[in-house]
């Protein structure tokens, strides 16, 4: 039985986009597995595509009113025109007043508003048309309104959504279609309605595959853009973005935020004496050791060369000091000659140091790292405003 399950899983893995690792499968299913940067960039992309969609609907929705004027009688045409103008105004407001914030829940709200507007228009127009006796020409035009759910369902394909998000959005559109059928129960053409409902489900499946494909490419591209290729931790550019996000969160909730600047001691000697391949091996081992000692909420990034930065949200200075001391005691790894690898560390914390920006916090940690280096290396340097410089010698196993 286990071998059969393993075979099934391996077969399913071959269906994944080649850009993804097998361990990233769940990122296509639920959004909670995404990193902070991935969520932010996906939220921004979703809102921008919502605004593009809103622009198209704002332009095209009133244009169909010309056809309504040509085929429908005065009371019916006026009612449909009113609905169209209201929908057009709603699309225009969504386009003009909704801006990307990088927040995923804001992106969900934008998508919900985008699809709520035409859905309400579809139900209202469907109900209105059901109350009139239509001629052959007007009945043919009226069937065009029945295609709106299919357009909306197909429109989901332009968004990089997870499987769960696709299921939620598709279910809402299917429920709206079912509601429209319920409101016109007495005049409903059941064979046509059932065929349309089945086609809507089929389109939902196709658009889900398109959305997942977009998401897979996005995950792969973001991974390549934000990760250091040697160590696999966050790169300098993405780290600056993470620090700004954590700074905004800390200020909004008035919580601690600690930043540690780490410089490996005498690392140049490793490259000079043993070669860059040995240096790369030491860096990778050191990175794994640090990751194993840090909390899941902490972020480790490679700043450049042998320099690293640790971002510790919701952490005061004393907690950060203890965590860093514990990380050093657990060992940063070994040099090629077998001696322990040591580091000079500078620590800064938002509340204690009274800094005014994320850049100032990082700069302060950098200065204290240099102070630790000039004071003899293998030590942690921290100090608060008005205090004498504080240094804690470190030891490595």
Automatic annotation (TrEMBL):
It comes from the Bacteria. Its EC number is 2.7.7.65. PROSITE patterns: GGDEF. Keywords: Membrane, Nucleotidyltransferase, Transferase, Transmembrane, Transmembrane helix. It holds the Pfam family GGDEF. It is an enzyme of class 2 (transferase). The keyword Ribonucleoprotein does not apply. Residues 255-385 form the GGDEF domain. SUPFAM superfamilies: Nucleotide cyclase. The chain crosses the membrane at residues 50-71, 77-98, 110-132, 138-159, 166-185, 197-222. It catalyses: 2 GTP = 3',3'-c-di-GMP + 2 diphosphate. GO terms for molecular function: diguanylate cyclase activity. This is diguanylate cyclase. It comes from Stutzerimonas chloritidismutans (Pseudomonas chloritidismutans).
């Amino acid at each position: 039985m286990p071998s059969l399950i393993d075979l099934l899983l391996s077969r399913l893995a071959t269906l994944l986009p080649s850009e993804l690792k097998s361990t990233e499968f769940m990122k296509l299913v639920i959004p909670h597995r995404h990193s902070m940067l991935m969520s932010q960039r996906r939220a921004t992309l979703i809102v921008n595509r919502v605004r593009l969609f809103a622009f198209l609907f704002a332009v095209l929705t009133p244009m169909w009113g010309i056809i309504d004027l040509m085929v429908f009688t005065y009371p019916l045409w006026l009612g449909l025109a009113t609905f169209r103008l209201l929908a057009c105004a709603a699309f225009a407001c969504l386009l003009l007043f909704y801006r990307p914030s990088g927040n995923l829940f804001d992106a969900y709200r934008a998508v919900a508003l985008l699809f709520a507007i035409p859905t309400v228009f579809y139900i209202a127009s469907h109900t209105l048309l059901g109350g009139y006796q239509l001629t052959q020409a007007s009945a043919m035009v009226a069937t065009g309104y029945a295609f709106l759910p299919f357009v909306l369902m197909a429109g989901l394909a332009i968004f990089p959504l997870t499987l769960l998000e696709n299921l939620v959005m598709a279910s809402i559109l299917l429920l709206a279609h079912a509601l429209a059928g319920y409101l016109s129960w007495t005049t409903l053409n059941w064979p046509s309605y059932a065929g349309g409902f089945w086609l809507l489900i089929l389109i939902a499946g196709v658009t889900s595959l398109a959305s997942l494909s977009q998401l897979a490419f996005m995950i792969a591209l973001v991974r390549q853009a934000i990760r250091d290729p040697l160590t696999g931790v966050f790169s300098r550019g993405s780290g600056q973005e993470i620090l700004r996000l954590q700074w905004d969160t800390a200020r909004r909730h008035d919580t601690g935020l600690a930043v540690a600047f780490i410089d490996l001691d005498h690392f140049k000697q490793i490259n000079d004496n043993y070669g860059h391949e040995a240096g790369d091996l030491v860096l990778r081992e050191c990175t794994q050791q640090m990751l194993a000692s840090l909390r899941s909420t902490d972020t480790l990034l490679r700043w450049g060369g042998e320099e690293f930065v640790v971002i510790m949200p919701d952490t005061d200075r004393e907690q950060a000091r203890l965590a860093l001391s514990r990380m050093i005691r657990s060992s940063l790894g070994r040099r090629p000659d077998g001696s322990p690898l040591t580091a000079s560390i500078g620590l800064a914390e938002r509340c204690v140091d009274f800094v005014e920006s994320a850049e100032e916090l990082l700069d302060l940690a950098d200065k204290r790292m240099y102070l630790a280096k000039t004071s003899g290396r293998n030590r942690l340097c921290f100090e608060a405003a008005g205090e004498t410089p504080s240094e804690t010698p470190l030891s490595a196993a």
